[in-house]
Write a structure and sequence with these properties.
With 86 residues, this protein is mainly α. It has one domain (3-84). It is 67% helix and 0% strand. The protein has 4 helices and no strands. The longest helix has 18 residues, at 3-20. The radius of gyration is 13 Å and the shape is globular. It starts with a helix and ends with a helix.
């Protein structure tokens, strides 16, 4: 799958989530499913504990063609942790 197709799929998923009104409590919430998918991909390849967030960033770029800034990715991960504990 080429990069533009991956990007189109990712943005279509985000549009669907936003339009359906589910899974969103804020703008960054839209990206939680994408980040979870990237983390699942890392985990399925044997990486359970990474050295830095940049490993997730690289995988998300490869899978979806989306370049997440590290501070934004950090905030998305915090949302995921908070959601897990509520």
């Amino acid at each position: 799958m080429d990069k533009s197709t991956k990007k189109a799929i990712a943005y279509s998923l985000l549009a669907h989530i936003r339009n359906s009104g589910t899974l969103t409590r804020g703008p960054l919430e839209l990206f939680v499913p994408i980040v979870k998918k990237g983390m699942y991909h890392l985990n399925s390849n044997g990486l359970y504990k990474g050295e830095s967030i940049s490993e997730i960033k690289v995988v998300l770029e490869q899978l979806f063609g989306i370049d997440f800034p590290i501070p934004v990715l950090n905030n998305i991960l915090k949302i995921m942790i908070i959601r897990k504990h509520t």
